[in-house]
Design goal:
heterodimer; A: Ribosomal Protein S5, domain 2; B: 4-stranded antiparallel sheet; 4 helices
C-alpha cells in the first residue's frame, strides 16, 4: 500500500518548516544521533554477530567464514562478500522477492566501507596461494527499519567482525569442521575502526541519523566511511545537487560526528 | 527400558527445552512476537489486513493469509544462500495451513494478512517455533481468532518417544534412528498441522499425538502469558 508507506506531503512540509527553525520531530539537534546500543555474539551458529539499535532502528549482522578459491587478481588474499536482505518483517515498505536497489546499495556501501578502509587484513587470510583462501561472508538484516539502516549496518558490521572467531579447518580434507567449537583466534583486523556515516540534505538543512520521515524527505545524501578523519569511501545518493560550500560543511559534520559515534560504540570493542 | 532412556542434553522424555516467548518485538509491525525452544529462535511479524498486491490475487470472499518462512543465512553452522528454497516454500504453506483454521478473516474481502517468519538461529524444530511465534503475532495484531495454535515436535529416538527434538536428536542414528513428527494443535485438541518423517507403528503414533496434546497445552499457557504481559504494558 504505497499511499501508507511514504511520508505524506503535509507531514513533509511540516518537517521542513521545523528544520528551517533548527528543530526536529524528536527534538534532536541536526547533528545529534539517537541512542546507540549493541549486543555482540547473539547468533551461536555464526562465527561472529552483532545486533545494533539506533533509536527504534534495529539491525543484525552475522559473519560466516568459508574456504574458497581466491579471485585471479588477488591470489594471496582472502575474499570478502557483503550481502543484505531488507526483510519484509522489518517494515511495511519491504516486499518479498529478489533484492531491489536499496538492498543492493546497502550491501555495496558496507562492502566498500570495510574493503577500502582495509579493516579486515585480507592478506592474512590466505591458506594456499592461488588455491585456497578464507572468504568472509557478511550478511546484513534489518529487524526494524526506522531510518538510517546504512549507518546502523556499518556499526553492526564492525562489531560483528570484532566478535568473529575463526572456525577449525582441516587442511588435508580441505573442509571447515562445523561441528567443532570455534578456535580462540580472532579475525585479523586493523586497529583503526571505520565508521560509516550518512549526512542528508533536506531543503537548506543538513542532518544526520534520520528517522523514516526525514529519510523520505531527503533530497541528497552523502555516505562517508572514515576513521579518525581519514576517509576511505564515499558515495552521493539521491536526485538533488550539493553546493561546494554545503559539501565542505558535510565534511566538517563527518569529522565531528564520526568521533561521537566512535565514542558511543567504543565500549563494545575491547 | 523407557524410563532409563537418556536424552543427549539430559532432558526428561516429555520435557521441552527452555521456552522464551515475547510479544511486541518489532515496532513497525501490526503484530509481532519471538518464540524460542532453547537455541532455536523464531521471529514473526504480521502486517495487515492490508490491500492485496497483485490485484489478480485478491479473493472477493475473504482475506488471504500469506505466510513466508525464511532462515537467516547465518542461522545454521553452514551458511544458507539467501532466497527461497523448496524446503522454505513448503514450510511457508504448511504454516498457512496450521494457522488458517483459527482465523476469522472472512470479513476482510480482497485483503491480505502477511505473516513473515524469520529463523534467527536454528537447532531443529524451527517450523514449530515459527508457527508459535506467528500465532502470537496474529493475536497481537488484533486479527480475529477463535483460538491460538501451539506447535511442538514429537520425536521417536530408536523406540522411545520424546518431546521437542533438538539437532543432536534429529540426527539420532542408533537402533531405529529418529522419527520426527511436528504437530500443531489448539489447546482444546484440534490438530491443524501434522507431518512425519521416519518410521512408526500406528499405536505409537497415537501415543505421540497424546504427548503433543500435553506439550502444546503447556506452550499455549506460555503464549497466553506473553500476550497478557504486553497487554498489561499498554494499560
Amino acid at each position: 500500500m504505497p499511499e501508507q508507506i511514504d511520508t505524506s506531503r503535509i507531514t513533509g512540509e511540516r518537517l521542513k518548516e521545523y528544520l528551517s527553525q533548527g528543530k526536529r520531530f524528536d527534538e534532536r539537534a541536526p547533528e545529534e544521533f539517537r541512542e546507540i546500543s549493541a549486543e555482540l555474539g547473539f547468533a551461536k551458529n555464526a562465527e561472529g554477530s552483532a545486533k545494533v539499535k539506533i533509536g527504534k532502528t534495529e539491525v543484525i549482522v552475522g559473519v560466516k567464514m568459508e574456504v574458497a578459491a581466491p579471485y585471479p587478481d588477488s591470489k594471496d588474499k582472502g575474499n570478502l562478500m557483503v550481502t543484505s536482505e531488507l526483510l519484509p518483517l522489518s517494515s511495511p515498505k519491504y516486499e518479498l522477492g529478489p533484492p531491489k536497489f536499496p538492498a543492493i546499495e546497502l550491501g555495496r556501501l558496507i562492502d566498500r566501507g570495510i574493503r577500502e578502509s582495509k579493516f579486515i587484513q585480507l592478506d592474512k587470510l590466505c591458506i594456499k596461494e592461488g588455491e585456497k583462501v578464507w572468504t568472509v561472508m557478511i550478511d546484513i538484516y534489518p529487524l526494524n527499519d526506522d531510518g538510517n539502516l546504512v549507518d546502523a549496518a556499518g556499526i553492526a558490521t564492525v562489531l560483528a567482525l570484532k566478535n568473529t572467531k575463526m572456525p577449525k579447518y582441516d587442511e588435508e580434507e580441505g573442509k571447515i569442521l562445523h561441528d567443532e567449537p570455534l578456535t580462540k583466534e580472532s579475525l585479523p583486523l586493523s586497529k583503526e575502526i571505520p565508521i560509516t556515516l550518512t549526512v542528508h540534505k533536506i531543503g537548506k538543512n543538513l542532518i544526520v541519523d534520520p528517522i523514516v520521515e526525514e529519510e523520505d524527505m531527503s533530497e541528497a545524501r552523502i555516505t562517508i566511511t572514515s576513521s579518525d578523519g581519514e576517509i576511505s569511501s564515499m558515495q552521493k545518493g539521491n536526485m538533488k545537487e550539493i553546493e561546494v560550500e554545503e559539501f565542505n560543511k558535510i565534511l566538517d559534520i563527518v569529522e565531528k560526528v564520526e568521533r561521537d559515534i566512535f565514542k558511543k560504540v567504543e565500549k563494545y570493542i575491547k | 527400558m523407557t524410563k532409563e532412556f537418556k536424552r543427549p542434553d539430559g532432558r526428561k522424555v516429555d520435557e521441552t527445552r527452555k521456552i522464551v516467548a515475547k510479544v511486541g518485538i518489532i515496532p513497525n509491525a501490526d503484530g509481532s512476537a519471538m518464540f524460542s525452544f532453547g537455541d532455536t529462535i523464531a521471529y514473526a511479524a504480521v502486517y495487515g489486513p492490508r490491500k492485496m498486491h497483485p490485484q489478480h490475487a485478491q479473493n472477493p470472499e475473504k482475506a488471504t493469509l500469506r505466510c513466508d518462512y525464511s532462515m537467516l543465512s547465518f542461522s545454521t553452522k553452514e551458511r544458507i544462500r539467501p532466497g527461497p528454497s523448496r524446503r522454505s516454500t513448503e514450510i511457508s504453506k504448511i504454516t498457512e495451513w496450521a494457522l488458517e483454521p483459527v482465523l476469522l478473516i472472512d470479513q476482510y474481502q480482497n485483503m491480505v494478512v502477511d505473516v513473515f517468519i524469520n529463523i534467527l538461529q536454528a537447532n531443529a524444530s524451527t517450523r514449530c517455533a515459527g508457527i508459535n511465534a506467528a500465532a502470537m503475532a496474529l493475536a497481537h495484531a488484533g486479527i480475529p481468532m477463535t483460538n491460538l495454535v501451539s506447535s511442538v515436535s514429537i520425536g521417536k529416538l530408536d523406540k522411545t518417544l520424546v518431546v521437542d527434538l533438538n539437532k543432536d536428536e534429529e540426527d539420532w542414528e542408533e537402533g531405529e534412528g529418529a522419527t520426527d513428527i511436528p504437530i500443531t494443535m489448539t489447546h482444546d485438541g484440534k490438530i491443524t498441522h501434522i507431518q512425519l518423517d521416519g518410521k512408526i507403528t500406528i499405536k505409537q503414533l497415537k501415543e505421540a499425538v497424546e504427548l503433543a496434546r500435553k506439550a502444546t497445552s503447556d506452550i499455549y499457557e506460555i503464549q497466553k502469558q506473553a500476550l497478557k504481559d504486553v497487554a498489561e504494558e499498554i494499560e
